[in-house]
């Protein structure tokens, strides 16, 4: 059981003060009865709640897929830069979601956002071995030797040795290469640092898959949508 004003506030219908007035003005009904007490406790899963003629559907968690654009940081707040939360509509911001892991400022592609802390932990913990798949452009020719080095674990500049990574070459020439890389970690600038360790530079980076969820190709950079029930079930299966 939760207070009606808390439920409606969480859904973006106003502050507790706003909702006290709304309820007092007879604009809220619970199970067909107009209520006058904004502190009234209800069961959001069972009770029918109507505000200003509109039935509301309460949920505790929210799950979003975003095609993150370049120049936006994977954070909930920043004094200087635009964040991925700034790209959300207010109706989704009120759930206070946070990025699952992070993408670098200049990296684009699939970013999940949720307020489900347990799921977030499972998806970013190396213990659960969740694949993160990236498409990248490299400034030089990527070789079979690089594939073997990535397979056996790249040592980063700070001495950390990465776990096995699957490197696939799509195109390769002396002018540059296009690759797909699958990792199960999320160290700071990891993909870029892995290629720096073999003397090469990432010039473009896009995450195209998280777990077994591919980036929705219909999402333009900066756009997002809620996950389907099936997609949520897939993520919770890890």
UniProtKB/TrEMBL annotation:
Gene Ontology terms, MF aspect: RNA binding; rRNA pseudouridine synthase activity
Assigned keywords, A-Z: Isomerase, RNA-binding
Enzyme Commission number(s) of this protein: 5.4.99.-
Keyword Disulfide bond listed: no
Positions of the RNA-binding S4 domain: 2-60
Enzyme class: isomerase
Gene3D superfamilies linked to this entry: Alpha-L RNA-binding motif (3.30.70.1560), Pseudouridine synthase I, catalytic domain, N-terminal subdomain (3.30.70.580), RNA-binding S4 domain (3.10.290.10)
InterPro entries given in the database record: PsdUridine_s_RsuA/RluB/E/F_cat, PsdUridine_synth_cat_dom_sf, PsdUridine_synth_RsuA/RluA, PsdUridine_synth_RsuA/RluB/E/F, PsdUridine_synth_RsuA/RluB_CS, RsuA_PseudoU_synthase, S4_RNA-bd, S4_RNA-bd_sf
GO cellular component: cytosol
Any one biological process term the GO annotation gives: enzyme-directed rRNA pseudouridine synthesis
SUPFAM superfamilies: Alpha-L RNA-binding motif, Pseudouridine synthase
Family the entry assigns: Belongs to the pseudouridine synthase RsuA family.
Name of the protein described by the UniProt record: Pseudouridine synthase
Originating species: Clostridium lentum
Species lineage: Bacteria, Bacillati, Bacillota, Clostridia, Eubacteriales
